Records
---
Amino acid sequence: MPPEHPVRADAVRNREHILEIAHEAFAADGSVSLNAIAKRAGVGPGTLYRHFPTREDLILAVYQHDVLTVAHAVDKLLDDHEPLDAFRLWFSELAGYVRLKHGLGAAFTAAAIQDVVNATYAPVIAAVGTLIAACERDGSLRSGLDPADILLLMEFMWRGAAGAEGEAQARRVMELVIEGLRPRG
């Protein structure tokens, strides 16, 4: 078995930069070409293809990067907002990233997306658990809520219609859910 070679710092920076540019490009136009993304990122096509051999690889990497970014933002949200407001903001942000995935259609085969879901599930569940615990401590949500149950319940946020009308509906339904999660009595 050949020894593992450490990844060069510039290669890591290039990959992260490509992911950021690709996120913006896919959000603006799901059919943007990889060559256009490489050009926007200021790298040659070879550099992009070395990191992401196929369009699907790049799309999945962007999605995974975005979801993990949201998952890791929970502590900052709780520092800046009351727990229930952080809960609302966090789920809205997650829904935005997942909605982007739905707009990318054919790139997400069941097998391909399952690897990404598996890689992001634990950090997302941990983030939901952190939000729930903060809300339990301040009394805005009842105790004993299971993070996996809450994540499943909140999936409506990324399954609704796109656009302002769908987002307004998601906010209304989120408030209904929150009312059901409040302490009883």
---
Amino acid sequence: MAEKSRIGVTGLAVMGANLARNIASRGVPVAVHNRTTAKTTQFMQDYGHEGDFTGAESTEDFVAALEKPRRIIVMVKAGKPVDGVIEELTPLLDEGDIIIDAGNSHFPDTVRRTAECAENGIRFMGVGVSGGEEGALLGPSIMPGGDPEAYAEVEDVFTSIAAVVDGTPCCVHVGPGGAGHYVKMVHNGIEYADIQLIAEAYDLLTRVAGLDATAIGKIFEEWNTGDLESFLIEITGKVLAKTDEKTGRPLVDVIVDQAGQKGTGTWTAIDALGLGIPLTGITEAVFARGLSALRDERKKASATLAGPSPEGKEDRTDLVEDIRQALYASKVVAYAQGFAQMRAASIENGWDLDLGAMATIWRGGCIIRAQFLNRIRDAYAEHPDLDNLLMVPYFTEAVANAQDAWRRVVVTATEQGVAIPAFSSSLSYYDGYRTERGPANLIQGLRDFFGAHTYKRIDGEGSFHTRWSQDGTEVQTD
């Protein structure tokens, strides 16, 4: 066993434990610690034989087990627990040591912690890690943010444990400060939209086409061989194919229709509002989860509120293909919105994000890994300052080819009374984005009437105000 460990991991729940095991499997000596000593003991009993581990019962022993400068990965629940670990570690660390928060922290917290640690001479990194339990163990997508010099000291470890696609590790330094956690936040937001779109497709195939879970699972298996190929489409087929051991029914049919959430989708939507980015698909996905939580209210409403009931008699062949195309087009919109948000945040915060690199590291390990991320990577390689992915010829053509089916799906769902917030909002975004002159002129006129907010004219420079409650004349305000 090495005299000192190269890196430490504190927080040995499943993600932390698997990340530590992944690192050790690359021949890197790892010190492990958990606030509850029994977890450290259990970890060493279960996995101590897998690599060069040093189990530490106390925080003091944990810090002492690390070579200098110390490199410590924190894998605890976001929020106050992270602050608690930092407060406990700080008095024991020296100038130049590195604390790495690899949990799902909100990026403003990462910015704050970076500044607070710097006051004590400690370097802080906020690192997004995606891939769930399996990814943490076998190869996640890693989004490191923070001091580039600090990253240089752990780069070899991170790139060695990351997923690899076409010989390229799914890990790259994202940018300074909270950039790493920001990109992970948007990743999770796109994940929300992706999952909601899949759920809406499943709902239409169930309630309108009248197909059962087994048949729909086979459809998703087939879709995963084409342009929709992705991790989420793949596991959708597997979930739908699963039989419940107690009832013999498809497992999905006995799962309560309430979706949980941990906040990252909400953070993404709120941040987009602050940036002025229309993040319709992701935001509607967050709202849909909120609506799913109102199960008791929905039960009452289902017996009270009027509306059509799905007949389950649509032409299955046509509808299935239409849904596939609508799903792909809506998915393109969700990614276009997410990348537009990252671009705006990069400009706002001076991060200089390489959006093509983000697409590259999302191709493997992470939850939203998908075949068409290669197309996104190529798009940014050719157009680094791209405003919106919809303007790239490949995606322009793909969405144009799918739009007739997309519109039929939205009409059918509306006529049948099936809620499709992500499908319909994505189509509305597409139509709004391609409209040269929308109705916002009236909005601005109304704002000027009740609040003197002024407006601009199409035939001149400057801002203007009409004296609506006086003589009705127009005056220039600047």
